[in-house]
Amino acid sequence: xxxxxxxxxxxxxxxxxxxxxxxxxxxxxxxxxxxxxxxxxxxxxxxxxxxxxxxxxxxxxxxxxxxxxxxxxxxxxxxxxxxxxxxxxxxxxxxxxxxxxxxxxxxxxxxxxxxxxxxxxxxxxxxxxxxxxxxxxxxxxxxxxxxxxxxxxxxxxx
Length: 158
What we know:
Helix content is 42%, strand content 20%. The N and C termini lie far apart (61 Å). The protein has five helices and six strands, in the order βββββααβααα. The strands form two sheets. It has a three-stranded antiparallel β-sheet with strand order 1-2-3, with no helix packed on it. The protein has a three-stranded mixed β-sheet with strand order 5-4-6. The longest helix has 16 residues, at 81-96. The protein is α+β, with helices and mostly antiparallel strands and 158 residues long. The chain has helices at residues 63-73, 81-96, 105-119, 121-131, 137-150, and strands at residues 11-18, 24-31, 37-43, 50-52, 58-60, 102-104. Helix 1 (63-73) crosses helix 4. It is elongated and about 60 Å long. The chain folds into two domains: 11-43; 50-150.
């Protein structure tokens, strides 16, 4: 593993342990050249996934990009980081176990929206606004109505 501080390839593992949800290995490392300490995570990857974009382009699946987009939707929301990690791991597991090596951006978006709906309604609406490309206020209203009817709470007449 290359040191993020000096770029040396001479690093040593000082401590390894499973992550809290047992989906990865957390390794504490130290660089023998500069003495820098850092942590790496090792995850199981069942298969190489390719994402088919709406434009027709094909790009390698990037778990970190998925995590960043979920974190943007959840910014300043009171959601435990472990729950976020578990949700993203669940989405990745579903994609990898689908049996397909090529997945559409739409499939990813649907799974993320399902996951966010269970975590935080505000994050769900934020993500939906980008994923569904909202253009007007009525688009938000439709999603909010959808959320309220799924929760069994109808909007009261005004």
